[in-house]
Fold this sequence. Notes:
Blueprint: E1 10-14, E2 25-31, H1 35-40, E3 43-44, E4 55-63, E5 68-78, E6 89-95, H2 98-110, E7 115-117, H3 122-129, H4 135-145, H5 150-160, H6 163-187, H7 197-226, E8 228-234, H8 240-248, E9 266-272, E10 275-281, H9 291-306, E11 309-315, H10 322-328, E12 336-342, E13 360-362, H11 371-381, H12 396-410, H13 413-417, H14 423-440, H15 446-453
Parallel strand pairs: 1-7, 8-10, 8-11, 11-12, 12-13
Antiparallel strand pairs: 1-2, 2-6, 3-4, 4-5, 5-6, 9-10
Helix pairs in contact: 4-5, 6-7, 6-14, 7-12, 12-14
Amino acid sequence: MESIxxxxxxxxxxxxxxxxxxxxxxxxxxxxxxxxxxxxNIVETKSKYAWESHRVFHGFIKDNLENKxxxxxxxxxxxxxxxxxxxDIVELHCHGGVIVVNKVMETLLSNNTGVRIANPxxxxxxxxxxxKMDLTQAESINQLINAKNIKSAExxxxxxxxxxxxxxxxxxxxxxxxxSEIEARVDFEEDFSEFNYHNFSRNIxxxxxxxxxxxxxxxxxxxxxxxxxxxxxxKTNVGxxxxxxxxxxxxKAIVTSIPGTTRDIIEVNLTIKDIPIKIIDTAGIRETDExxxxxxxxxxxxMIQNSDYIIYLYSLEEGLNKDDEKIISKIxxxxxxxxxxxxxxLIDSKKVNKKNLSNSVLMSIKNDEGxxxxxxxxxxxxxxxxxxxxxxxxxxxxxxxxxxxxxxxNDTDPIIANQLPxxxxxxxxxxxxxxxxxxxxxxxxxxxxxxxxxxFCIGK
Length: 460
């Protein structure tokens, strides 16, 4: 992609989601030196507050090239430096929908040759480059936008508030303190007593432990961001799609009496008792010559291996048979939440043989019976203890930089063990500090910045 480091251009983009053909409001964001003048070219208003900073005023969009009005809007103006990007910003609040908002966007660009469409993430990148936020805050905004559940959104917002930078700065300041002593000794060795390798080793060990905790919590935090995956496995027509709809409280999956209805993986993200969960409906497992259905069945077996947990469903009307037992035998026991007998409404539950089914739940998904017991089993197996002490989420880039810093500190071990010249320690500590600085954006190249922000949405 083209470099988006240059911030001299005035940029514009649709900054809100728009639905196909309809919508209440859509927002077009314009940022840069010509933001106000470019919008003045297409806005007619009689408001006495027009173009004042942090004011909302009424106006109309007019295409001067065609001499006609396009839309009635509200306009918000934010003068530099008191805006998201640190530049002059104008936001045009149009009526929503694909046709109207795109026509307003087209009018803005066609009537102003000095305005171009923003690249992905360019608004956030300008905010970073203009010192309005550090890199972790910018990345956390992207995580917040893409959050799949409430818990993930809460943790992402902690990053927006600067909690990631705070934790990184604490570790970084600890390392700077160690580096300062080493470099002071190099310059003024005669003023210090003999270097204490033991004390230095103890201090570095404490710092390494802080880094290791951050890395470990971030790996556990990936479950929060993506949701703990629970695959619904079973033969055809046992109620997997119905259970998905019941738990999500929405009609996400097609439910029929026709065997093999579900041909592909269907996923729903939800939160159960504060636990972020991704429920995965899979194709029913059976013998079939149907090519596409067989592909779905292969994916079902793959989900047994790839998902975090499994709920196995069978029909109480048919009973648990050898085919069920064969499939269950392929499920690792540590992954199995429960064996769920469905269609309780069709049988006398007292006659159900629960032999070897101590971990079972009997339900009538159709009559919404047994959900509470199932939820209790899900919570017990996927309990929220897994997420204790996780208040920030680090992405792969940030974890990689932390891991590199940890490697730098581990490389001090042989220097300490052999009591080599202590000034050698400064090389590893300094590199460790640089790796921490990369997390917050103080040690970055243009190419890396472009790569990071290119993953953002256009209007952010």
